Amino acid sequence: DVAHHTAARTPADDHGKRGEDLLRCVGGVLRGERQLVRAGADPDGVFLMLVDDDRRIVHATLHASVRDALASIDRDRVARALRAADGALRRLGVNAPRIAVSGVNPHAGEGGLFGREEIDHIAPAIAEAAAQGIDAHGPFGADTMYLDRKFDAYLVMLHDQGHIPAKLAARNPAAFTIGTPVLFATVAHGSAYDIAGRGVADAATLIATVLRLSGAG
Question: What is the value of pTM for the model shown?
Answer without folding.
Answer: 0.78
